[in-house]
Amino acid sequence: MQYEIVIGLEVHTELATASKIFCGCTTKFGGEPNTHVCEVCSGMPGVLPVLNQQVAAFAVRTGLATNCAITQYNKFDRKNYFYPDLPKAYQISQLYLPICREGWVQISGKKVRIHEIHMEEDAGKLIHDPYDDVTLVDYNRCGVPLLEIVSEPDLRSAKETIEYLEKLRAILQYTGVSDCKMQEGSFRADINLSVRPIGQAEFGTRTEMKNMNSFKAIARAIESESKRQIALIESGGIVTQETRRWDDNKGKSFAMRTKEDAHDYKYFPEPDLPPIAISDEEIESARAALPELPDAKKARYIQEFGLPEYDTEIITRSVELTRLFEEASAVCGAPKDTANWMMTEVLRLMSDAGTLPEDLAFDFVSLGKVIALVSSGKINRGTGKKVFAKVFAENVEPESYVKENNLALVTDTAAIRAELEAVVAANEKSAAAYKGGKEQAFQYLIGQGMKALRGKASVNMVTELLHELVGA
Amino acid sequence: MELLELTALELSAKIRVGELTVREALDAAYRAIELEEPRIHAFVSLCKEQAYAEALSVQERIDAGEELSPLAGVPIAVKDNICTKGVRTTCGSRMLEGFTPTYNAHVVDLLEQAGLVVIGKTNMDEFAMGSTTETSALADTRNPVDAERVPGGSSGGSAAAVAAGEVWLALGSDTGGSIRQPSAFCGVTGLKPTYGSVSRYGLVAYASSLDQIGPIGKNAADCAALYAILRGKDQRDASNMEAEPLDIAAVEGYRLTGKKIGMPREFFGEGLQADVAARVQEAAEKLAGLGAEMEEFDLPVAKYAVPAYYIIACAEACSNLSRYDGIKYGFSAPESEDLRSAYVNSRSQGFGMEVKRRIMLGNFVLSSGYYDSYYKKALQVKRLVQDAFTRAFEKYDMVLGPVYPTTALKRGEGLSDPLKLYLGDIYTVMVNLAGLPAIALPCGADADGLPVGLQLIGKPFDEGSLLGAGRVYQRKAQEN
């Protein structure tokens, strides 16, 4: 039988606010354990939360960028459960009236519907110390603001899922609400997955894999879990609704807890925080302030600059790459060249060094300067690549680097002619062979000429002058 | 001259003109405490060292000519669920017996700014759950009028300390009557302010949507002066609202002439002790004699108020008290094998019976499948109570009734029948559900000489009228 995979995602993204959601502590990643804490985020007796207004503003911005309706009267609720990383033993979240509802994100060929987006606080971290057999708690992350973005079960494959996640991440980065650093856990997904025979209307029983924070692991987990479910059904078994833990090293998932022992979170309205009212004016001004989003940017790059679709797809997937493209092409005035350089040199260097777009550390205008140096004939393309490699690795300033290292092309015709005369004199046989009709002999002379000039002359000029010198 | 016989305002006046030092006031309080405590047990902690240091600094500020407040230099007792930096804050619970906050509640900062000196922390029902102060794990507070009776609760220590003449003023907190009822039992004046008029920052939460800090004192004038200090916006409490400062001159010049006071028939029905009814009726007549127009009206929603209150309060409490898990601070059961047993043992041993009862009740009403029929219904009743009072205040300036159906209970009497004790909250809980201000004023005694309390309920943020009416009433009582 043929099966269809059905996937819905709950994505958690940490917001790029300076301070936590309900207190003034910093949201900076890292730091010595329990140094970014106060009596509020560590859940001491008698303390009260006060909403960081930037969190609601970011939530509205995200909702508008994903075509959601904004809940103009929304509220916080308490989700109650005991765990040492949750010092109040409840998480302030939104259940009954989430701030955004019913949106969608476009991926190739389909709209993935967003069920809701709600605001909540992150929990702390437990650190297990196997040597002393103790578990330690770090509350630094406690109270870092999160958005939970819940999709409808509209995804049908690992490929679609990754495309959706990449698009969502791009939107969050474009709008500046999150840095989405997956390795720091600021963008992570819970995967709800079920399978059903193709043509069946009802969904199968789903399982959930929590806190996945790498695209590769997500793709592998989807492949593995869908195969497991199909094999189970094929062999006459039934899928149990349960939470599973994906072990990427072992390449398989393990059952953690079933629905029967699932928590009753006893949600109720958070009495310490008043409801949030968002006016039409606030929504409209947030809408007006939205930056150009990935799809619009992509369309514009194609239309305005005539870039190939594939290039724009790659570039617009990351807000950093669009910044690089826009800043560099503004300097050199050559968008197509810029895109070419990015698709070849930039991506190659990034993949060699394992650099993520958000970690690009050079001055973006430098790429434009290198391109301008090449196109104006100041350096040749080969030198240009070498200079850019220096820019990429050490953030050198291209123009002064070229000058200091004497890399500019020699443009003095007399000087070049003198060098080439010497080359012809030293290679009389080749010159004679060429005159005798041997084409390769001329290519040899060009090579020798470039070598003598140490690459600092334009090949066109060398060719032209050699023609003059050896005739024909 | 016996300093403890002065009112707080009189004491501060003497200190501010230099007739007395802050230190002398403090000495007098601690002497009275030494004398009375063996009988009353109102305090769970005294903070002499901090108090004398603070007294020195207040004295310096006064001597330097700083205008502090009309209560500058007055020693004050603070209920033990209000956080005091460096002074343990137990909430009357074994769970927090060793807990010392690193921060002050906002109101404690306000007291310091106004030049009052915190002398100690008063006993209370565990986590403010109870109306006799008997659920405290730390002390057994007695009613100063009759030591075989309870002081009421949950702010029983605060009311008893003022009534026993151990201190001039105290802070209490009121979630369902916890300032008014002990004030009535002990024969002192207590004000439960409008929800949102006093910051809850640093008040250890029982039921967050109902809790409010307020003053307990010898009379309405002292309470007005203290409330004027407490009232105001605090950025750290999102439920706290902007409000005009209390107009003390308007309180002092308040007239009852032309004021309409409503008396709900449901407040004078079955279950009300006869001589309590009589004293409250006499008080109503006195107010009428002072120019107020009294009128009876129906408040049928009253019969749903107690169940709705306990559902909402317990639901919030079970969540608020979940943080006491034996992991971070407070009591931690020794020799737990794993995380689960650490939770279970710490909470089983750290909490008393009444707290456990309410935690279980709260968990039940919030459980999936029961939420709609209990918690949601209770919220609807809360709304009906609010609406009923909004309608009443279209007609009346104030609503009058008793504070409690009886005078002070005998020790042990309440613990034996918790449901009966809950039902006793009938006249006080509606005020919390509606977020209204209310004042408890002593109005005579029953046949055993036990104090009876009169309750006046006001419009939101209209504490001025309640305190004003209290002033007028107490001035008249003094004349007689």
Describe this structure in words.
The complex is a heterodimer of chains A (472) and B (480). Chain A is of the alpha+beta class and 472 residues long. Chain A has three domains: 3-284, no CATH class; 292-404, no CATH class; 413-470, Arc Repressor Mutant, subunit A, CATH 1.10.10. Helix content of chain A is 41%, strand content 20%. Chain A has helices spanning 53-65, 158-174, 215-234, 280-288, 294-305, 309-316, 319-332, 335-353, 365-375, 381-394, 398-404, 413-426, 428-435, 439-452, 459-470, and strands at residues 3-14, 69-70, 73-74, 77-80, 90-93, 100-107, 110-121, 125-129, 134-138, 145-151, 187-197, 207-212, 242-247, 252-258, 268-269, 276-277. In chain A, α3 (215-234) links the parallel β12 (207-212) and β13. In chain A, α9 runs antiparallel to α10 and α13 runs antiparallel to α14. The mean pLDDT of chain A is 90. Chain B has helices spanning 8-16, 22-40, 48-63, 106-113, 156-163, 180-186, 220-230, 248-252, 274-289, 302-320, 339-350, 353-366, 372-395, 418-423, 429-434, 463-479, and strands at 43-46, 75-79, 117-122, 169-173, 189-192, 213-217, 260-264, 293-297, 398-402, 438-445, 451-458. By secondary structure, chain B is an alpha/beta fold. In chain B, 61% of the residues are buried. Chain B is built from 16 helices and eleven strands. Chain B has a single domain, classed as Amidase signature (AS) enzymes (Alpha-Beta Complex), CATH 3.90.1300. Chain B is globular and about 65 Å long. The mean pLDDT of chain B is 96. Chain B has an eleven-stranded mixed β-sheet, sandwiched between helices. At the A-B interface, loops of A face α10 of B.
Query: Stretches of chain A where pLDDT falls below 50 for ≥5 residues?
Result: none
Whole-number radius of gyration of chain B?
Answer: 21 Å
- Gyration radius over CA of chain A: 30 Å
The number of helical segments of chain A is 15
- Give the class of chain B from helix and strand content and strand pairing: alpha/beta
* Helicity of chain B, as a percent range: 40-55%
Overall helicity of chain A: 40-55%
User: Helix and strand succession of chain B?
Assistant: HHEHEHEHEHEEHHEHEHHHHEHHEEH
CATH level 3 topology of chain B: Amidase signature (AS) enzymes
Shape of chain B: globular
Strand order of the largest sheet of chain A: 2-6-7-10-1-11-12-13-14
Unreliable residue stretches of chain B: none
Q: How many beta strands in the DSSP annotation of chain B?
A: 11
Within CATH, the superfamily of chain B carries the name: Amidase signature (AS) domain
Instruction: Count up the domains of chain B.
Output: 1
Beta-strand level of the residues of chain B, as a percent range? 5-15%
The pLDDT mean of chain A sits at 90
